[in-house]
């Protein structure tokens, strides 16, 4: 399959040498796989929230059969990493970030239209020994250098590395997001996994929406917060405009996909982001109806099934299967070498 | 032959995958394809390792489809229990079409290694030839390929050839075909294959003929008449390089009915009956196969010894009994006279229990059984008169000899089968048949060579053919509905096996354990005109399609040429004589036979048939002899009863 306008084809065995070079320069080989591809963090603050629809946060019942777009694409990202070496106690990570857009065809099957993938080396460059740093920089692999403020014990260092990795992933997602409008048909919609406001190219697009499946941002207090968190199934809240967070302003609302009673307040709750356009509030019911329809098929047994739409799950699965083999290997400790 | 034009730019249709649970081995491998694929069970594929070092050919034996659904319950929950809703989901789940294939051939053959995880292609003509190892016998200076059908998959089509050396001897031989009845597969397949053999049997292997036993209905009665073929059939014939024509040389043999003059066959339409030759045997022919006609209990040493005595010392010899009566036994009638003479002689002389060391009870038993034959098989076995038989020693190359015993008593069928096959064997052994090889087609093999039941003469003979026939050029093409019910040595010695649509119960028997469940399902649902083929060169079964036979099917033939009703005795005699001489005047024949004994007429008729004189009518009149006028019967006077029965009740 030909790569779809992406540098994915550059990723294969030609990068193996950078790790060899680092090890040859004195680093110690390691193998440790931290958690992979967490949900995007949703952060927010009640201050600055403006109601676009209704004077207070109201609930609106949704008729699932109201509307469905004729053509839809889905954008998601993927990240994977592995600690492959330590220069003394400075971790050197080998990472893979990827993003893809898959379009749903007339046969209701998803086909990839855009795909990007990068291999990266992530480390505290300034803390590497000169020999290892030289070897790494000379290898040609893209390096994500973590600022020294993140340095600390292994847990803190890996947390900083993880933030760097996420930033890199968001970067390739943005690249993929820029490609989509060039190939989208006139009536094609795009669903982005995560916040839309991260995508400058999409946040103003009339037919792009973001689905935040981990709506941890606290945009409301008091009764409004209670209204949002106890939203009945197949209902949405009033449309509001959260404080500007990313490249562009967006409108947003909460949508309950599945009943939360008997589970958890956040069970089946997603936050939808759409361009901050006049017609967004008018389309909120239709878009919500469409997203309710996307509940099937279920993504069980994924633990996030009640908030994870199947097509986004499909994009993620696709990207995972396309990741380089070294990242797909089972995490396992190395057995100690027998003394000579 | 093999079309190499199809080998152009090729696009892979799948890719080999191997997991710890489903690894690739030297014998099996798994590959996936697009959901919309032309691959199916029986498809032949080619795997390339991508480095040009190894090519593997395989045949698909099983298929799987599954989605990313971890539990059916998830689909129920997603559709809220409504199947209609499940169909409305905006996205279709990811699906896979995963296939299991059995390796047909690896190149290089050594070292034998697991199948590489390479690209999978649909096989072309050349690939099919390579995969089935047909390259060894389809090409070269002395090709021995016999087309059996067309393999087709993935929009490609390739002829499949059997090796004549393994189908018709001497390397291996015999063919067995199984399939449920009524789907026009078994007989049609054999008819097509015979046409293919006649067209492609290599010159260097000599001449070949076929003897077909028609054991039911009109199945094989119209092999010389053209059947209805459509465009697709004609295309297949052309692709297989077999002429789409009926057999040019067919000879029919059928016994008479009990009246001794009407033929016991469905090929009695006036336009066709002319080339049906009567099959009539007399005492010498029958006595050689007396064992066929006696049930197991009868064949004790004493009866056997007495039959031997009759054969060696009595039949067709001048013989004088102890009471001075001279005998020359050539017919059943002569034999009956001998028996009567012996019984009378013993009775008069007071020696009531022994004759020539044989006990009278044994003699009586043999007499009863033998004379019973002429009753049960009347029409086939003549009490008196000359026999009419197959043209032993004059068999012609590429000819079919149909022996129609469909309406004959089972005992008679056994006799015909045993005698014809034995005579074939004798002539082939001496190289005096006229052809070097003969295919014997017998349907209902589970009746003649059953797996269970008594060890009959016919079964022993079939076993003998199966095990030794290939050296003689005597090849058995057997057909049956249930393969499991045929003797396993007959089945096991068939080098080539064809399977039509099979019954599921039959497929559940142990003989089919080597087939995958998917292959069994395919066999159970196979359409008319498709066969599964096993052949010594093929390491796995292969599915092929063959055209409808170019001869008139039995049922159609019976409609187009409805059998003539039995004609009166004198008309039947006219018909018989007319076959020998068209100039015979019916009115003269009818006048001649009017008022004559039927047996006398039959005897005269047999004589004429046997001698084939120039002047048929004159010879018939001579054989019939002068009319003997009988004295007019005088009415007997009766005497009135003295005391007529009164109506008075008391």
Total of DSSP H or I helical runs spanning 4+ residues of chain A: 8
Q: What is the mean pLDDT of chain A?
A: 86
Query: Tally of extended strands of chain B?
Result: 22
Tally of separate helices of chain B: 23
Distance between the termini of chain B: 100 Å
Give me the secondary-structure category of chain A. alpha+beta
Uncertain stretches of 5 or more adjacent residues of chain B:
1-8
Provide tags for this entry.
heterodimer; A: 340 residues; alpha+beta; nine-stranded mixed β-sheet; two-stranded antiparallel sheet; 8 helices; 13 strands; 27% helix; 26% strand; disordered N terminus; B: 650 residues; alpha/beta; ten-stranded mixed β-sheet; six-stranded antiparallel β-barrel; 23 helices; 22 strands
Q: In words, what does this structure look like?
A:
The complex is a heterodimer of chains A (340) and B (650). By secondary structure, chain A is α+β, with helices and mostly antiparallel strands. Chain A has one domain. Chain A contains 8 helices and 13 strands. The model of chain A is unreliable at 1-15 (pLDDT under 50). By secondary structure, chain B is α/β, with parallel strands linked by helices. In chain B, the strands form 5 sheets. Chain B has a 10-stranded mixed sheet. The longest helix of chain B is centred in the middle third of the chain and has 21 residues, at 410-430. Chain B is built from 23 helices and 22 strands. Residues 1-8 of chain B have low confidence and may be disordered. At the A-B interface, helix 7 of A face helix 1 and helix 2 of B.
Short description:
Chain A is α+β, with helices and mostly antiparallel strands.
Write the topology of this structure.
The complex is a heterodimer of chains A (340) and B (650).
Chain A: H1 16-24, E1 28-32, E2 50-51, E3 59-61, E4 71-87, E5 90-104, E6 110-123, H2 130-139, E7 143-145, H3 154-183, E8 188-193, H4 200-203, E9 208-212, H5 222-229, E10 235-237, E11 240-241, E12 250-256, E13 269-275, H6 280-293, H7 310-322, H8 325-328
Parallel strand pairs in A: 4-8, 6-7, 8-9
Antiparallel strand pairs in A: 1-4, 2-11, 3-10, 4-5, 5-6, 9-13, 12-13
Helix pairs in contact in A: 1-2
Chain B: E1 14-17, E2 28-33, E3 44-48, E4 55-67, H1 72-78, H2 83-88, E5 95-107, E6 119-122, H3 125-131, H4 135-138, E7 145-153, E8 156-163, H5 164-167, E9 175-178, H6 186-200, E10 208-214, H7 231-240, E11 250-254, E12 276-278, H8 283-287, H9 290-293, H10 301-314, E13 318-320, E14 326-328, H11 332-349, E15 354-355, E16 358-359, H12 360-376, E17 400-404, H13 410-430, E18 437-442, H14 445-448, H15 457-472, E19 474-480, H16 488-492, E20 496-499, H17 504-507, H18 517-524, E21 530-534, E22 542-545, H19 554-560, H20 569-580, H21 586-593, H22 598-611, H23 616-624
Parallel strand pairs in B: 9-19, 9-20, 10-17, 10-18, 11-12, 11-17, 18-19
Antiparallel strand pairs in B: 1-2, 1-6, 2-5, 3-4, 3-6, 4-5, 7-8, 13-14, 15-16, 20-21, 21-22
Helix pairs in contact in B: 10-12, 11-12, 13-15, 20-21, 20-22, 22-23
